Amino acid sequence: MAMESQPSRSFYNGTGSSQQHEQNTQVYQENGRWYGTNKKGAYMFPVDAKDEQDRLDIFHKFCLVARKELLHKAPVAVEEPSILDLGCGTGIWTIEMADKYPRGRHVGMDLNLIQPEFIPSNLTFLQRDIESEWPQELKAGTWDLIHMRTLNGSIASWPRLYAEAYRHLKPYYGHIEQVEIDFTPRSDDPGLVNGSLISQWTGELLTVMDNFGRSMRLDSNVTTQRLAEVGFVDIKEEVIRIPFNPWPTDTYSRDIGRWFNLVMKQGFQPLCLAPFARGLNKSFSEINDFVEEVKAEVSKKEKRVFCTMHIFTARRPQGDNPASSSQTSRSRARQH
């Protein structure tokens, strides 16, 4: 098994000042893709310096199209906000937020340091496991917004993660925002989904990730309940239909489908390669052949199939302090 150090990319095109972000992430190769060694196996998707990181940045553009250029939905009530991005990936969302709020404090945390070499001066990236205890410099009760995007498939205990986020948010003002994709294919014509390759791909991926203990399933009721049990209030959910290709007739939905089709053509293989190889004992060629068939199917405009994006926001209420809520929220999390 090959192992080496993978350098970060060096671009940053923001308008603010920049600081050098010197880092390397240790990677190993499996089935032609590069994976991070930090907490090996916890994150089952590649971190390739070009292919996967480019895909993640394209996914960010897709999210902006789907959300009509909104970087966040949760309110930010101050001019100098403290914003924490969990599982920040390439850091592109965090960087754009640092440009949007140049007087704020911005931190991105991820298992792998794959962010650009030069970043805004008000931004810091930390290599941390967000499922472990967070570093003390991220003081409890001080964050205005904690953001996470597409972490389904990477988290073993959502209640525990929600509890830690709750503890770190400012009482009354602090908000959490979570963006996830439910890949389950749907159609106004059920016959387009039943027996389809995209349905098979999704079903196998969801099942094998369940077996690994890091589910990719999304249940709105479960997510809402977990947030409420930790203590969050004002829990809201927005759902956006995501076509798998540009089959819709209206411009907005067609643009979403065009970008999502590009994302998924690049994403089917990295999303399923390690899960199928490790969990289903499928060979590299078997997986690639299947992926090519799925890509061809979802690109046909007569396949009027869609999935959904879910945006959850919630607020930490007034009435407790970081010390007391630490014990309370953690005890709630341990019950699940």
What would your notes on this structure say?
- The strands form three sheets. Strands 8-6-5-9-10-12-11 form a seven-stranded mixed beta sheet, with helices on both faces. Strands 1-3-4 form a three-stranded antiparallel beta sheet, with no helix packed on it. Strands 2-7 form a two-stranded antiparallel ribbon.
- The model is unreliable at about 5-25 and about 320-335 (pLDDT under 50).
- The chain has eight helices and twelve strands.
- α3 packs antiparallel against α8 (about 320-335).
- The protein starts with a strand and ends with a helix.
- The protein is of the alpha/beta class.
Helix count? 8
* Average of the residue pLDDT scores: 89
CATH top level assignment:
Alpha Beta
Largest β sheet strand count, sense and barrel closure: 7 strands, mixed
Strands in their spatial order, largest beta sheet: 8-6-5-9-10-12-11
CATH architecture: 3-Layer(aba) Sandwich
Structural class: alpha/beta
Radius of gyration: 20 Å
Total beta strand runs: 12
Strand content: 15-25%
What order do the SSEs take from the amino end to the carboxyl end, as H and E?
EEEEHEHEEEEHEHHEHHEH
Low-confidence stretches: 5-23, 322-336
What general outline do the C-alpha atoms trace?
globular
From the N-terminal CA to the C-terminal CA, the straight-line distance is 37 Å
Say what the CATH topology is. Answer: Rossmann fold
Q: How do the helices and strands line up, and which of them pair or pack?
A:
Blueprint: E1 3-7, E2 18-20, E3 24-30, E4 33-36, H1 51-66, E5 82-86, H2 92-100, E6 105-110, E7 118-120, E8 123-127, E9 145-149, H3 158-168, E10 175-186, H4 197-211, H5 220-230, E11 233-243, H6 251-279, H7 284-298, E12 306-315, H8 322-334
Helix pairs in contact: 1-6, 3-5, 3-8, 4-6, 6-7
